[in-house]
Design brief:
It is a single chain. The protein has 5 helices and 4 strands, in the order H-H-H-E-H-E-E-H-E. The protein has 152 residues and is an alpha+beta fold. It folds into 2 domains: 41 residues, Arc Repressor Mutant, subunit A; 75 residues, 2-Layer Sandwich (Alpha-Beta Plaits). Helix 1 crosses helix 2 and helix 2 crosses helix 3. It is elongated. It holds the Pfam family AsnC_trans_reg.
Length: 152
Amino acid sequence: MKLDQAQRRILALLQKDSSISTQNLAEKVGLSPSPCWRRVRELEEAGLIRGYVALLDREKLGLGTCVWVRVKLTKHSSEVLDRFEAVVKSCNEVVECYELLGETDCLLKLYLPNLEAFSSFMHNFLLKIPEVDITHSSVALREIKNETALPL
């Protein structure tokens, strides 16, 4: 779907505040409310808007430790990857997981209360997955940038 300027502006504004009223959105985009609402619906139906969420403060929720874990699997087969994916998708601590090219097969991003929780995660969950061969972990010292808005 090729986006026009109004659609790009709508998406940019919704990424910053998805709770904005249709009236306010229309005013900022330069449309009347009905056409603006229709454009938002078109963007939803086209799958460009996947949903609406509330962004939470992980620090205030006691999830101050961010850890990246690189995982090498025991072998490269669709069955091994499918089993690993299914287990990882069921784990709440894993907030992101990517399959990679190169020496590392998957990259996990975790939010945890502290390093003790990370140790527990490793020993009681990740290292018990039979498909996991080698792991390398990095603990974030501080968050420099974390944006949810995509560049338009």
